[in-house]
Amino acid sequence: MKNKTKKNIVRIGLIQTRSESGPVPNLKKIILQIKIAAAKGAQIISTQELFTTPYFCQTENTQNFDFAESIPGPTTDALCKVAKSEKVVIIASLFEKRGKGVYHNTAAVIDADGKYLGKYRKMHIPDDPAFYEKFYFVPGDLGFKTFQTKYAKIGVLICWDQWFPEAARLTALAGADILFYPTAIGWKPEEPQQTASYHAAWETIQKSHAIANGVYVASVNRVGKEGGLQFWGQSFIADPFGHVLYRASSAKEEIVLADCDLNLVEQTRREWPFLRDRRIDAYPPILSRLIEK
Amino acid sequence: MKNKTKKNIVRIGLIQTRSESGPVPNLKKIILQIKIAAAKGAQIISTQELFTTPYFCQTENTQNFDFAESIPGPTTDALCKVAKSEKVVIIASLFEKRGKGVYHNTAAVIDADGKYLGKYRKMHIPDDPAFYEKFYFVPGDLGFKTFQTKYAKIGVLICWDQWFPEAARLTALAGADILFYPTAIGWKPEEPQQTASYHAAWETIQKSHAIANGVYVASVNRVGKEGGLQFWGQSFIADPFGHVLYRASSAKEEIVLADCDLNLVEQTRREWPFLRDRRIDAYPPILSRLIEK
Predict the structure, then answer these.
(1) ipTM surpassing 0.95
(2) What domains are defined for chain A?
(3) Predicted TM-score (pTM) above 0.90
(4) Integer Cα distance of A253 and B117 in angstroms
């Protein structure tokens, strides 16, 4: 079944880091890491979720809204310069201040010529002990989006979005060949047994998005202990068959690099023609909360 | 986070077999296997896909329509008797003759008192070299269904449905605590390298349905070589975290047994409240074939 098609390689770089104390050192660090990734040939580079700060959602504290900034704004301005000088696409996960009292968990996409392309606002907002995101973030209202960058048409989803097949499906149907998931997920060190389950489920469901949609999935998580959470790293890139091309360690700062053959998207969908056979005529009840008789 | 809830155990039995030459020996064999499974405590028992025959869809041959039968009909009548005597729920995957020239790939559900509860008609029909199902089966028109049986509320999906997150979602939203997937999937022995990928993807995507929906998934596949296909067995049962409770061998006939705690469905959804956060307001474009701008 293997088609001997020409390859169309794009190199992805994911920056898995430990957070510094705040925005100034984190921005400095990420710019350095982007330059290192670019020097290693990365063409599309993604930060982890909310990279400018420690994961502040572990508590509900109005002071933390001070971390929010406009998008585009000072951080994207700085990153646009780097994108242009390094000729790389940058996906930057940031805390967006949209207006007084209206904040989002947002990812900005910057093209390889330094142009700000647009943003995705996290659609699914969690709320769990130590992940009090509903306190901070208005659910996104821009829908599921794709961005035509110099090197690939990509989609960006953020962390909790990972658990929703609908989010991946909608982004893939809109034409994304690669789904990026900036993430901040970890465990409570006092619950080590649950961690293995959670991590396995986390990787499984993201691989399933690659398989169901015939796309690449690139997930970038932070490492390090912050307050009561140990972030589990293990950023990875999966191909459209769900093969993990590279999986980072659970504890170290790392730049994850993988070469993705974009032609494999069409090739995989020819072999696994799921998009041909979707029963869209029968799916309308999926817009229900529950289906009660 | 573990809640100390009471358990509500149901034992599933999946009958992974090699096909005999045709309906008479296969029915005889499945009845014997159901009795053995029942003796081992199985309460809900599923056959593999199209268990009465070899997997005839490897070729397009109008003679094979002779295998089709009405549902309910002679095979379900025989199985209703077994269900009643053994006090087990039976899911029987059959070739349905609905009328002259209208055939479906259908699963019948029989309750533990021997009552025929209804049927599910395979919604997603594949068509691939050696899997020429579009020649034989009209796509299902009964939608995604659940069945309240004596032991659990269950959903049945069939083989190719496995690859569609929408099918699992719709069946779970309708209240199924366990998704059953009668299956006939295998590889061409001349392509062993692809098999590992395909099998891994097949298990991954089904585990993802368990995780995304907080339900049990029970998948039952055939074994043995038939014509150009080697069926890969490896029937399995996964819990709502995506843990595989039991995975059968790739070559041997086996009865897969696992105890499923139905209370884990609610417990898992409390810990992973995905159904709380689905953005049903933003999902309507999922009813599109592709999303073009």
Answers:
(1) yes
(2) 11-275 (3.60.110.10)
(3) yes
(4) 56
